[in-house]
Amino acid sequence: MRIFIIFMSAIFLASSVYAQTTVTEYVDAPGTDNDGVWQVTYNTGTFDSFLTQIDDTVWWTNEGAAQAFATAFNVDNLKFAYGEFEPLATDYALYSDNTTTVGNGGSLDTTTSAGYAITATNVPAPLPILGILPIIGFLKRMRKRQRA
Q1: Distance (Å, rounded) from C-alpha 20 to C-alpha 136?
Q2: Which of 47, 85, 95, 109 has the fewest C-beta atoms under 10 angstroms from its C-beta?
Q3: What letters, b where the CB count within 10 A reaches 16 and e where it falls short, cover 10-32?
Q4: CA atoms of 66 and 57, how far apart (whole Å)
Q5: Residue 90, burial from CB neighbour count under 10 angstroms (0-12, 13-18, 19+)
């Protein structure tokens, strides 16, 4: 049990030292097969600096999914970029946030600093994982009683 507590403390400490913010919410993202709990990492910077991470997200090229994530997470000024627009000399990032609606997304110069959602991971619900620990302990005690 001590090892488990030390391990969890180390994970908590490492995640608190890391400068990015993570938010976990339930979200139903249209256009994806993976509904459920999502851990979204976001950071402040330019679209150009995060492009390689953003183009791997589930809402990339899907404005509806970007809007679903933005609405579900409801963080002010957090942009879920779903595309890039290059009309002439200036590149623009197309995004949804908690104030836009589908078909009415925003655009921002790709060199302007803003808060962007940069990764999304579909994570398992914590209750089934944590719920098995008491069962394991109960089974160990039962084995000890049977041996005695």
Answers
A1: 35
A2: 85
A3: eeeeeeeeeeeeeeeeebebeeb
A4: 9
A5: exposed
Burial of 110 (0-12, 13-18, 19+ CB in 10 A): buried
CB-based burial, 124-144: b 16+ in 10 Å, e otherwise: eeeeeeeeeeeeeeeeeeeee
Residue 122: pLDDT above 80?
no
Q: How many CB atoms lie within 10 A of CB 63?
A: 21
Contacts of 48 (CB under 8 A, 6+ apart): 91, 110, 111
Strand ranges across the sheet with 21-27: 21-27, 36-46, 113-122, 78-85, 92-96, 106-109
Neighbours of 7 (CB within 10 A): 10
